[in-house]
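Table 4 source record.
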Amino acid sequence: MEALSTYDRNRDGVVSALEAHDYAKEKTWTYTQGRQRPTAHARFIGDADIALAGRKQRDGLPVLEAYDERLAGFALQVNGQAKGVLPFAFPLSDGGGSEIALYAPGDDQPLARYHVSAAAGDTLTLRQVMTERPLEFTVRQRYQWWRDAAWRRLSGSDHADATMMAAAYGIGMWNLGISNEWTRPQKNDIAPFIDTEVAVRSLLLRLGYRYALPRLALAATLATGQEQVSISLIDTTGTDRLHFRDRAWARGLELAAIYELGVDVSLLLDAGVRRNTWRLDELGALDGQRRWLGLGVEYRFGWHARSLR
């Protein structure tokens, strides 16, 4: 009876069956100190709950429904205020977004934080919010160390700067993607009146596994695909050039630490190794083995409901 007169959770003018049940459930839970937890099993066809009191006057506040029994006993805070123990439903802020914190039973530190954007009248589920964004895009800058003496002779250095762009689709803790990487062309004076210019481009298929921690993730990725090396010999006294190109099948492993900075944006630190061998006619074999250390930014997207993990 209290619910029918006081508990219009989303402020649309109507007290619904689920609103009344949730109100009574919380009161009973508190009164019995957790010994009794009323539950309801309902299936609604259409876009409306069952109205018990009042008349709908407006679109209500957006509501986050958290009725997953696997999370029973977990608690939620909305915009820094404790809102109750699951299973339950929670009103959210209209338009500007709501900060949500999920707490495990008896834990003072949040298990996860989210920012949810929803409009008036929307109903979201906690499962939607907790679902990982499936798409990710990264840009990385890498500092590479080359092992081969022939590379050092041609390029004039044992290192190279590389830029990498990658896109991937995630399924749970796994992700599958593709990357495009290229080194900055390196020039060297290898003999009187002869210069060289060396560059490498890679197109790789990537399979990764990610272990997530609060605000931090550790990832391991296997990569394989084609790498092309381009070498030019330039006659500095004229305009003559000799070009050498070869493609080779490459494979590599990288490890990364990923730290969440904010709205689906993370800072990424990675290290790895890659192997291949190019064969360049008169120049002979060129060992493509190198190690690298890189820094990058990752952006995750794909679900409209959540904008911050």
